[in-house]
């Protein structure tokens, strides 16, 4: 199922072809087949390349064929996309449920996801060629999706079913300042507070122990210690200039 084929039938707008390529590449798929598009060279159109946004390699490998039968050559299991079921047509499934069932099979099938034209969707005879119909759950009052949006949703659900991509790790946590660095900061800050007249060295009360506990709770990083020491340094310089 990693090599799932995405089939677009009678696509009219070059931008949708490009956006489809982008949606596929984001989810790690690359097999794109265009059935009788409005423009045979649609994958080369400027709008398609612009909308692909870095997925031009998918467009370059895309194949154009005259019929859906040609597009499904080598496919074991084809899924039509349609908002409404067809009389006497294949059964309708919610994508996530069907993908999970197919992925769990001992021998997962070579899959094709088939999308109709932007204006008319899929013709009945094309739906009948497929093994299942996929219906994306949407708000009951409005279920209209752009072609590439539908591709993105199905590509995401399929990727999750066959093993999603891990979330990229965050930037490594900055190094925490050790006790010696914090004590150096406290001593520097104490000098600066005396310089500006905020702290009376003869009666310091509990200010410095409280600041010590504050810094311990904060879990200062080395960079934050440097920033606070820089502030303390400027405090002492200002006090020296002004005579305070």
**Largest sheet, order of strands side by side?**
3-2-1-6-4-7-5
Biggest sheet details: 7 strands, parallel
Fourth CATH level, the homologous superfamily of the largest domain: SPOUT methyltransferase, trefoil knot domain
Number of helices: 10
Beta-strand proportion: 5-15%
H-E order: EHEHHEHEEHEHEHHHH
- Sum up the overall morphology in one term: elongated
Number of domain units: 2
Which structural class fits the helix and strand makeup?
alpha/beta
What is the terminal separation in angstroms?
Answer: 75 Å
Radius of gyration: 31 Å
* Low-pLDDT runs: none
CATH architecture of the largest domain: 3-Layer(aba) Sandwich
Strand tally, please? 7
**Mean of all residue-level pLDDT scores:** 90
Q: State the CATH topology of the largest domain.
A: Alpha/beta knot
Percentage of helical residues? Answer: 40-55%
CATH class of the largest domain: Alpha Beta
Family: Belongs to the class IV-like SAM-binding methyltransferase superfamily. RNA methyltransferase TrmH family.
Catalytic activity: cytidine(32) in tRNA + S-adenosyl-L-methionine = 2'-O-methylcytidine(32) in tRNA + S-adenosyl-L-homocysteine + H(+); uridine(32) in tRNA + S-adenosyl-L-methionine = 2'-O-methyluridine(32) in tRNA + S-adenosyl-L-homocysteine + H(+)
GO molecular function, one term: methyltransferase activity
Subunit structure: Homodimer.
């Amino acid at each position: 199922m990693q090599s799932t084929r995405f089939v677009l039938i009678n696509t009219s707008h070059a931008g949708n072809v490009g956006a489809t390529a982008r949606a596929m590449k984001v989810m790690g798929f690359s097999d794109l087949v265009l059935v009788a598009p409005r423009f045979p060279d649609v994958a080369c159109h400027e709008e398609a390349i612009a909308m692909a946004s870095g997925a031009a390699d998918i467009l370059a490998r895309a194949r154009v064929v005259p019929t859906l039968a040609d597009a499904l050559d080598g496919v074991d299991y084809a899924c039509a996309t349609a908002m409404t079921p067809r009389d006497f047509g294949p059964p309708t499934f919610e994508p996530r449920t069907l993908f999970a069932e197919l992925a769990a099979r001992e021998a997962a099938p070579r899959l094709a996801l088939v999308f109709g034209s932007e204006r008319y969707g899929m013709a009945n005879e094309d739906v009948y060629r497929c093994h299942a119909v996929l219906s994306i759950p949407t708000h009951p009052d409005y279920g209209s999706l752009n072609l590439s949006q539908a591709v993105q949703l199905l590509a995401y659900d399929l990727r999750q079913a066959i093993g999603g991509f891990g979330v990229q790790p965050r930037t490594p946590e900055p190094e925490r300042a050790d006790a010696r660095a914090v004590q150096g900061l406290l001593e520097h800050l104490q000098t600066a507070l005396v310089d500006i007249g905020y702290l009376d060295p003869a009666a310091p009360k509990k200010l410095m122990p409280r600041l010590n506990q504050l810094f311990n709770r904060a879990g200062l990083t080395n960079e934050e210690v440097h920033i606070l020491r820089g502030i303390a340094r400027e405090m002492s310089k200002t006090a020296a200039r002004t005579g305070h």
